[in-house]
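Example for reference:
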Amino acid sequence: MPTLHAVLKQDGRPRDTSGPAGAGAANRALSAVRPLSGPLLGLGAVVVLVLVWQLVAALRIWPEQIVPAPAQVWAQLLSTSDAGNGQSGYAGYTLLERLAVSLRRLAYGVGYGVLIGLALGLVMGLVRPVRVMLEPLVTFIRALPPLAYLSLLVIWFGIDEEPKVYLLMVASFPPVAVATAAAVTGVGKQYVEAAEALGANRAQVIASVILPASVPEILTGVRLAVGIAYGSVVAAETVNGADGLGGMVLNAQRYNQTAVVILGLFVIGITGLVIDLLIVAVRQSLSPWRSRV
């Protein structure tokens, strides 16, 4: 395959790209390079952030207890991942064990939240009186910070796993409900009328027309819900959640172990980014026409 330089230059003379052939070749070359630009820019931003962080730590503008060097955070990553370091990782659990516990809570909470939000949003989108009645309530819950109702959940359900899962569920269902309702109401009437003209009943219209057309917006709501719920893990694990990532962050904060706190935040952020990329990939596979926009 000729390179972009070879396409633009032939026999030592710049080639005219204003014509259809030249423009097409240049566009193909640029299209081959463009998919790499996003990851490279993201990687470059991370490298710049780490370099700035290292520079600030080296200049000792703040004490090490406030801004530890990247090497200290890396050392904590190795230490908390080692089950034989004398602490079984960190306070009895390795980093991988803590990640698994937090992801399990996230899966349960978001799973229940998505199911509730999907059912509620579908009803709100299809039945206008229900939407008028429930939309203010959903908006009210969506505006509440997780810590605002965590204490109430503890009073109702105790300090075991239930309040943590319910907290993540309550935090995650409003975005899904709002996105689903908006997607359902936005489906073109001509598609519904065409399906009905072909003899489809109401259930068939919902299953074969409304839901498939709403999938991209619904998955966008799921994407937001996962982000909100994962951001609430630390709050959820303030109550008897010492075995999770949030528990590690809170315990390290009590003892001014800033490197461990930063490590926990990095792990939460990176795994959240991976989950987000997976949801985006699913959305693009289910609605490839949207990925071209």
In short: Residues 20-59 form the longest helix (40 residues). The CA atoms of residues 142 and 174 lie 6 Å apart. DSSP finds 13 helices and two strands in the chain. Strands lie at 9-10, 13-14.
